[in-house]
Write a structure and sequence with these properties.
It is a single chain. By secondary structure, the chain is an alpha/beta fold. The protein has two domains: 5-54, no CATH class; 64-297, Aldolase class I (TIM Barrel, Alpha-Beta Barrel), CATH 3.20.20. Helix content is 43%, strand content 21%. α3 (86-95) packs parallel to α4 (114-123) and α3 packs across α12.
Length: 299
């Protein structure tokens, strides 16, 4: 469907919405306000849902880019040497426009090492997103590092990469205690989950601040099946917004499939690693990050 609304901007401070129609005519209106000119999030969620149906992007709210540098560490660990250093490459990613740096500290330390995490926290200029399993060992490390936020992920030693979302529904009480412990150290917590309603609802009940929707299935599909999965991700984003959760997404996103995910209204951040590092082998990390950032913000 081609939208007759070509551009919409929201000023959260005043509640003013400006709309451009047919690239020539403008109109403005105000949202209802509550609590001293605070924009009602429920109304914003409704507007976001309508705009996704129209294919219209809220220009004020665009997704940011989190760059996963695990694969830099993969190359280093292949020879058990000191280079390439993922800490140095995080600097290049930030030069390219990365809004945050993501690393997954695995139980078997197959790529990222403890030293990397501590140094990144001290040296990067953006934000540190620490992916980890919900284990006591990782809890203690997180409380020492104090990353900007932690993303809890499932982890199996035999997998090449994370194969699916965390089953929060089956681990409610354990995860509620675990998340609460992280929050006591002022660490915001995200759950990497599949885009299913029950997983989103239980993420809210447990107390997560964020969710990260697993886009692996979307990335693997094509044609009408991929479109169906895209609609599932869109509806999952709206449901999470309605519940007050901030929505990130990631896994399998690349230069060919990222734009439709990035265009979802109220999508907060996309975490991308493999495709950026793969392209960096040809053109350099700073440029490959810059190209991905341009795709995400050009909607």
């Amino acid at each position: 469907m081609t939208s007759w609304v070509t551009n919409i901007a929201i000023n959260p401070n005043t509640g003013l919405i400006s709309c451009q129609i047919f690239k020539g005519f403008f109109f403005k209106f105000y949202l209802l306000h509550i609590n001293n000119l605070s924009v009602c999030p429920f109304l914003l969620a409704i507007i976001g849902r309508l705009l996704d149906c129209l294919g219209t992007k809220i220009s004020k709210i665009m997704a940011t880019l989190g760059v996963n540098i695990d694969h830099i560490a993969n190359v280093r660990q292949a020879r058990k040497t000191v280079e390439p250093d993922p800490v140095q490459f995080a600097f290049l990613a930030e030069l390219g426009g990365a809004d945050s740096i993501t690393v997954h500290l695995r139980e078997d330390r197959r790529h990222i090492q403890d030293r990397d995490v501590f140094l990144l926290k001290e040296t990067i200029k953006t934000k540190l997103n620490l992916e980890m399993a919900a284990t006591e060992e990782m809890l203690e490390i997180a409380k020492k590092v104090l990353p900007n936020y932690v993303t809890l992920v499932p982890e199996k030693r035999e997998e090449v990469t994370t194969e699916g979302g965390l089953d929060v529904k089956s681990n409610v009480q354990y995860l509620k205690n675990f998340v609460g412990n992280l929050k006591e150290s002022n660490i915001e917590v995200s759950a990497f989950i599949d885009p299913f309603y029950d997983q989103i609802n239980y993420s809210k009940k447990i107390g997560f601040n964020f969710i990260e929707l697993h886009t692996g299935k979307y990335a693997e599909l094509s044609g009408s099946e991929q479109h169906k999965e895209l609609l599932r991700i869109i509806e999952s984003t709206h449901l999470a917004n309605d519940l007050g959760l901030v929505v990130n997404a990631g896994h399998g996103l690349n230069y060919n499939n990222v734009k439709k995910i990035a265009s979802i209204n109220n999508m907060n951040e996309l975490n991308i690693g493999h495709s950026i590092v793969a392209r960096a082998l040809a053109i350099g990390l700073e440029k490959s990050v810059r190209e991905m950032k341009s795709l995400i913000t050009s909607n």
